[in-house]
Specification:
- One of its GO terms (cellular component) is lysosomal membrane.
- It is found in: Lysosome membrane.
- This protein is an all-alpha fold and 372 residues long.
- 73% of the residues lie in helices and 0% in strands.
- The protein contains 15 helices and no strands.
- The protein starts with a helix and ends with a helix.
């Protein structure tokens, strides 16, 4: 299949850059005629771009069109994040000014990190999935990684908006965001329904599953890591629950004061991690010890995507200037904070890579292979 449809989506996503600049400039001209002209011009550009895509041989998979729209919006989110941090200017100034009133959550440090994650990592995943759909390849693996990332982002953002200091200021933009959530949940179910593409020879499965743990040093290292990781996620959950322990109070004061930020995003993040990552670490211990746990392949993809998004947002917001100074990580504790949180984020990515590239230990021989 021709790749022109995927290329058209990529070009369409980049059209968001001049559209944002054009709209912002004309809105500030205070001219109704100019604003009308900008709207018509944007519609014409989008219509021509869509026509270019649709006149090619496009896939029947509806997620192609969903991710095409999401790729466009991801570039807009990146522009918003860059302008909020004064890296660029004049692209979405009007939106940022209005969002500070209509959707103040967007101007928090956590909101900034979400903009960057969506504008960079999610954007790359959308393009990869669009390319896979265009070429007729499976995109289930990258799709499950996106599902984990999206679910973590959505849960923390929605609950944080509801219970944080801006909980009484939920406006129309929040309900528009809920439309995005609804469509994305439908996309998640579509991805889950796709068949797995793992194909490993029976002899490889039998050989891998006969290997003892001592002869699998990498798996042994992962098992050793999972125990302190479990303790760490439970410990931070207790911290945000105001545990009176001297250790919890000292940790909050010297290493992660951001956990007490009144925006409530870090508190929700730690509670979700404790309730989600905690059980995950326990059952992953089982999956690394007992052969034939096929669910490990999907579960590690979901968890690594979720934890990557969570740790990126948490580390970035903890150090961001938009976070009040009293809630930022102290300068002398930053090396330890960054090292611990990076390890906590990166090791699950390595475990996911191990499961995806060498899945034989986790697979069960199919009846067809057994008969051979």
């Amino acid at each position: 299949m021709s790749a022109s449809a995927g290329t058209g989506v990529f070009m369409l996503s980049l059209v968001s850059i001049p559209i944002c600049y054009f709209f912002n400039s004309l809105i500030y001209s205070n001219s109704a005629e100019a604003f009308f002209f900008a709207g018509c011009a944007a519609l014409i550009i989008l219509a021509i771009s869509a026509r270019f895509i649709l006149q090619k041989k496009t896939p029947a998979d509806p997620l192609f069109y969903v991710y095409a729209v999401y790729a466009f919006l991801s570039v807009v989110n990146l522009i918003i994040g860059l302008e909020q941090d004064n890296i660029i200017d004049g692209f979405v100034t009007f939106y940022i000014k209005e969002a500070s009133i209509a959707d103040p959550h967007k101007n928090t440090a956590h909101g900034h990190m979400i903009s960057y994650w969506d504008g960079c990592v999610h954007y790359l995943m959308y393009l990869l999935m669009i390319a896979a759909i265009t070429w007729g390849d499976s995109y289930r693996a990258i799709g499950l990684y996106w599902v984990g990332s999206f679910l973590m982002r959505a849960i923390v953002y929605i609950l944080g908006n509801a219970v944080g200091k801006y909980g009484t200021e939920i406006g129309p933009l929040f309900f528009l965001h809920m439309l995005y959530i609804s469509v994305s949940i439908w996309a998640c179910f579509r991805i889950f329904s796709q068949p797995s593409t793992q194909d490993v020879q029976l002899t490889s499965i039998q050989e891998a599953q006969r290997t003892s743990l001592l002869n699998r040093p990498l798996d042994l290292m992962f098992i050793i890591y999972l125990i302190p990781a479990l303790a760490f996620c439970v410990f931070r959950g207790l911290v945000v629950l105001d545990c009176p322990s001297i250790w919890c109070q000292s940790y909050t004061q010297h290493y992660e004061p951001y956990l007490k930020d009144p925006s409530a995003y870090p508190k929700i993040q730690m509670l979700v991690s404790m309730l989600y990552s905690g059980p995950y670490y326990v059952i992953t211990l089982y999956g690394l010890l007992v052969p034939g746990c096929e669910w490990m392949l999907d579960l590690t993809l979901l968890h690594s995507g979720a934890l990557a998004q969570a740790q990126f947002s948490h580390i970035g917001a903890s150090l961001h200037t938009r976070t009040p100074f009293s809630y930022r990580v102290p300068a002398d504790s930053q090396p330890v904070f960054v090292l611990v949180n990076l390890l906590y984020a990166l090791v699950p990515q390595a475990l996911c890579y191990r499961c995806s590239t060498s899945p034989a230990f986790f697979l069960r021989p199919t009846p067809d292979k057994k008969s051979e």
